[in-house]
Design a protein that fits this description.
By secondary structure, this protein is an alpha+beta fold. Helices cover 33% and strands 24% of the residues. It has one domain: Glutamine Phosphoribosylpyrophosphate, subunit 1, domain 1 (4-Layer Sandwich), CATH 3.60.20.30. Helix 1 runs antiparallel to helix 2 and helix 2 runs antiparallel to helix 3.
Length: 313
């Protein structure tokens, strides 16, 4: 049987053991386990990598612990603006949405853009109108509300700062919620896929969009090289075209998956001041979980091996 594998992330940044209660850590580990094993089950039953990454990311979007879907951070106006992307490594087709407001599962809307439109990226009201035409689930604004997110937003507005969801500030040592979510998968047919979803930055203004919905920056998949989903300070990931750069280093320079990920995350990004990480996977079922921050919520499962779950560096 051909190898199958899936990896997921729930954000990277200042994630310190000293600031995590045992109860909170257990909640994160359980949420990561549930999402990665859900995706793996789909692969095991012969489902596609595209179906697996969508299911895993939907599961994370529905979990209030993560900055995507239900647990998304607040914008400057006190709203939620959600971004997501998905890409098929077999066909090179991709779909993405940005700045959508009441979409329960932005990753599913991104998949609809890929499969039922001639476009790649739809934004704002237009993306929502398209979503309604595709019978995508919408929720009232209250669905996305979370008390800890709300307090985080109030503090950011008061200090007039745009706050990376996973960053830790001295005045906010009880920071509870962290970053983007994503998944990469390899199915029994040898096809790769990647998906990423996020609520962006707390107190973001002017309809700011990060790397998550940008194909090649935060999300990329190509059967010939790898599938990649990124998390971190989006502006740096866009400038460095991180996801595609990993693929290029494999395709044009012959680097291994681990070498390519290490170079981009620990050398290229670091030199530019970019903090964060990525998950990546190739057709051989090799997984890379790479980050240059103190921690990254992550999990993976290959073939019949035990599920791996990690949080700290």
């Amino acid at each position: 049987m051909n190898p199958i594998a899936i990896a997921i992330h729930g954000g990277a940044g200042t994630i310190l053991r000293a600031l995590m209660t045992a109860e909170k850590e257990a909640m994160y580990r359980n949420a990561l386990r549930e999402a990665v094993e859900l995706g793996h089950q789909i692969l095991q039953e012969g489902g596609s990598s595209l179906t697996a990454v969508e299911a895993a990311v939907r599961n994370l979007e529905d979990c209030v612990l993560f900055n995507a879907g239900k647990g998304a951070v607040f914008t400057h106006e006190g709203k939620h603006e959600l971004d997501a992307a998905i890409m098929c490594g077999a066909t090179g087709l991709a779909g993405a949405v940005a700045g959508v407001r009441r979409v329960r599962n932005p990753v599913t809307l991104a998949k609809a853009v890929m499969q039922h439109s001639e476009h790649v990226l739809l934004v704002g009201n237009g993306a929502e109108v398209f979503g309604q035409s595709q019978n995508i689930a919408f929720e009232p604004e209250e669905y996305f509300y979370d008390g800890a997110r709300y307090e985080q937003w109030r503090a950011a507005v008061a200090s007039d700062q745009v706050v990376l969801d996973h960053s830790l500030r001295p005045e906010n040592l009880t920071e509870k919620k962290f970053g983007t979510v994503g998944a990469v998968a390899l199915d029994q047919l040898g096809n790769l896929a990647a998906a990423t979803s996020t609520g962006g930055m707390t107190n973001k203004k002017f309809n700011r969009i990060g790397d998550s919905p940008i194909i090649g920056a935060g999300t990329y998949a190509n059967n010939a090289t790898c599938a990649v989903s990124c998390t971190g300070h989006g502006e740096y990931f866009m400038r460095a075209v991180v996801a595609y750069d990993v693929s290029c280093l494999i395709e044009y320079k012959g680097l291994t998956l681990a070498e390519a990920c290490h170079y981009v995350v620990h050398e290229k990004l670091k030199k530019q001041g970019g903090e964060g990480g990525l998950i990546a996977l190739n057709q051989q079922g090799k997984v890379a979980l790479m980050f240059n921050s103190e921690g990254m919520y992550r999990a993976s499962k290959q073939n019949q091996e035990p599920t791996y779950i990690g949080i700290y560096g």
